[in-house]
Amino acid sequence: MSRKxxxxxxARRGPSLNVILTAAVVVIAAAVIGGVLLANRGSAGPSxxxxxxxxxxxxxxTVDGDKVTVVEFFDFQCPACSSYYTDVTKKLEQDYRGxxxxxxxxxxxxxxxxxxxxxxxxxxxxxxxxxxxxYHALYENYDSWALAGQSVATDPKAAAATFERFATTAGxxxxxxxxxxxxxxxxxxxxxxxxxxxxxxxxxxxxxFVNGTKFQPKxxxxxxxxxxxxxxxxxxxxx
Length: 239
Hints:
Helices cover 54% and strands 9% of the residues. By secondary structure, the chain is an alpha+beta fold. It folds into 2 domains: 13-44; 49-237, Glutaredoxin (3-Layer(aba) Sandwich). Helix 3 runs parallel beside helix 10 (222-237), helix 4 (115-126) runs antiparallel to helix 5 and helix 4 packs across helix 8. The protein is globular.
């Protein structure tokens, strides 16, 4: 019996047309998804570093290379922040000047009605290159605007007048200072700081980070906190 000749086209069956088309669709989809992921990676939210320290953040002390960076989220009207300033951060700024980068970030709390106006005043001073001067004036004269007897002050007009005195002492153009205070850009800056704080899980002030790690002191006194913070900074400097 003769053997039928085989069709050379069908003798070796390869993948069907449906399989080939399906594979092509999968490859194209993978390429599209990969491209989307790459695009999203490039436009993703801020990294931990930029969340802690945006490119335009103010500094009270800087050092080339930023080997050690200390970021503080604070509230200008917060009594605990004022105490930290007096017993910890002001001395830190002085003693480690030129060795660390010190970055102040705003976190005005709702329980302190003048915290936001104070933050805006500091940001307005920053528009004229005098952020540090206003920052220090607000803390050095804390009792004159932040307190009313045993309670926190609540009069924004009285505070605004005090802030203008600080601005004049710092050598600011007062008219420009007033105009900048009304600018929505300043509120956006403070709102960004608050959003960054929330993203980092910061809910209270003062909260500090040393080289990206939250500083959590164990001591019960400000002297203990000061020693622990300096030890932490020294450890980073010695690396």
